[in-house]
């Protein structure tokens, strides 16, 4: 079975621009979570979606938004990019809200 | 809010030897899970082992085992017979059962296995 997939692999954007990152969960998984991992640090929780509803939100500004589609794939949007948004963005899927999470390879975002 | 602390930024071990990575956490919750994740240079986060807080028995997965001390809020990872492929960042993570499956991660320990 395919694992969690994310696209694109790498992305370079300019300050002020907007970016959309995509994630496809493991088949049968209904929950998707997003994490931001700044270089040299542990991942920080951004959002969790389950059955297309937001179930959790981390301490991130409103510039960050996400959604989950009927096929359980998800998009993370970041508006008005700042240099500090440069990070590895990880998507994780799980069978349910209390199940363990499986991570994708991440999208490396560089903001210049 | 929960916090997870990994006090060893870097560690090294000789191939075939044993190494222990430390993790402490702070929470007022009684129902939770703890995890160790491995992140190799390829950056894919891989689940190594998990521990349910209500279980007294320490979890084991082949060469990986944990020492879970609930009262001390300590959760260390022991890697036996270290292999070159164990070289990676290791993250300790906490999941509060009452808050979905949001993970709170520690800052990580970089482990180098030397031949």
Report what the structure shows.
The complex is a heterodimer of chains A (112) and B (115). Helices cover 0% and strands 51% of the residues of chain A. By secondary structure, chain A is mainly beta. In chain A, strands 2, 4, 5, 6, 9, 10 and 11 form a 7-stranded mixed sheet that branches. In chain A, strand 4 (31-37) and strand 5 form a beta hairpin. With 115 residues, chain B is an all-beta fold. Chain B has no helices and 12 strands. In chain B, the strands form 3 sheets. In chain B, strands 2, 5, 6, 10, 11 and 12 form a 6-stranded mixed sheet that branches. In chain B, strands 3-9-8-7 form a 4-stranded antiparallel sheet, with no helix packed on it. In chain B, strands 1-4 form a two-stranded antiparallel sheet. In chain B, strand 10 (88-96) and strand 11 form a beta hairpin. The A-B interface holds A 31, 33, 35, 41-45, 48, 50, 55-56, 58, 88, 90, 92, 94, 96-106 and B 4, 33, 35, 37, 42-47, 50, 91, 93, 97, 99-108.
